[in-house]
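Protocol step 4 of 5: obtain the predicted structure for the target chain.
Materials: sequence only (see below). No template structures provided, no constraints applied. The aim of this step is simply to have a reference model before the mutagenesis design in step 5. Sequence pasted as it appears in the construct record:
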Amino acid sequence: MSSFLRQRSIYATEDRIVFDIGSIYIKCGFSNEPQPRHILPTCTPIAYADSTEGCRIGGKLEPLWDLNITPTELGYMRRRLSQVLRDAYYKYLLIDPKTRKVILCESPLLPLPIKQTIADILFTELEIPSLTFVPSPLAALLTVGKLTGLVIDCGNLETSIVPIYEGRPLIYYIESLPLAGRSITERLKLLVKHHGRLLQHEDEESDVLLPEDLLDSLPLDFWEEIKAQMCLVGDRPSATDIVDGTTSRTTAGEYTHMQYHSSATSMVHRINVTDRMWVPGWVRERATEVLFEGDDDARSIATIVADVMLKCPADIRTELAQTILLIGGTSMLPGFQRRLQEEIMHALEDLKQYQKLRRLAIKVKIVQSVFAPNSMAWVGGSLAGALKVGGKEILRTAPSIPDWTHLPNGAEAER
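Step 4 output (C-alpha cells):
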C-alpha cells in the first residue's frame, strides 16, 4: 500500500502530539487529525473535605496564569500544569510521552518564564524526545490556506493582533489589549448583580436581587457556562438605545454602566436545587460591550486593529485588511464577527487619527474557516506536524527556548 493511502492514527509513531495550552483550557491530540482529541479545563482538584459526601469529581476551574505572573504564582502554575499534562498523556491520549515528538502552539506574547516552565515539564518530567514551537496566529492562518493576513486572537486574558506577511509574523507591529473573555465575565457579574433577579422554588417572577454572598460563591465555570449559553454581541448601539446609566463602585473605583433597550429575551439559569437566576435580555446582549467601549486609554479591539494596520507598510495594508482571521474562544460568541467588522469600518471611516486608512474601510473582510475559532490554532499545529514543517526542533539534550520578546536594536532591527 502506498504511503499516500496508509492510514495514520494513534498507532503511527510518526504522528506528533500537538498541544495548544491556554490559560483556562488545554487542547491536545495527534497531528494529521482535523480536531483535538480532548479540550481539558485547567481545574484545581477539590479537597475531599470540601466535596459532597467525601467524593471528588472534577475540580474548580482556575486560570493557570495571569498577565502579570509572579515567581510564587509560577511555581503554583508548574504544579498544576504538570498534573494536567500527565493526565493528558496517561488518561486521555493513552500514550507514552517518551515515544512522541511534541508540537506546541504558542502565542507570540506568552511570557518567556511560562514557556520555559512548559518546556521544562515536558523535557524533565515527561521526557519527551523533542519540542517544536509553532506560532498560533501563523498556524491558524494555514487552516484557511493563507500566508498573509491579520490574525485577531480573542481569548480569555487578552486580545492580540498579529500581522503576518508571507508566513512571517511581523513582530514589531503586534498589539495587545487586556480586554477579552475575562473582561466580559467581570462585566456580566456586575450587570447581574444590579439587574438580575433571584427566583426560588417555582417562582416565575421576582423583585429580589441576587445576594452578593451568593454571587461571590459562584465558581468560574458557572460564569463560563452562563457566558457561553446566554451572551451574544449586539449591533453597535445608537443614542436612542441607551435608557440610562448606573454608577457602581468596584475595586478599580467608580464605574458607570449603561442600561439599553434590547429585543433579546430574558433567560433563567439554575444555580442550585432551589435557586435560579433571571437575567434580562439586554444584559445578555450588552455584557460584551466592554470589548468595544475601550480601556482607560480609549483603546478598543477595533482601534488597536486600526493601529496595527497604520504601523504596517502601506503596500501590504490592503492585503491585511482583506484577510482578517478571528481565533480564540471569545470570538465564537454569536454576533461577534459582524459587530467587530462594523466597529473596524467605523474606526477607519470616522476617527481622525486613521484618515490614511479611510480607503481601506470598504475592503475590510473577515475570512471564514470550516474549523472552530477556539481550535483553529491547534488544527494548524496538526497540519504543520502532518506536513513536517514548522519552527526549529528543540532537543531534550540541548533545550533552547525561542524568545519573541528579545528583539534586535538599531540597524539590525531596520534590516
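Step 4 remarks: Residues 71-93 form the longest helix (23 residues). The first strand starts at residue 17 and ends at 21.
Proceed to step 5.
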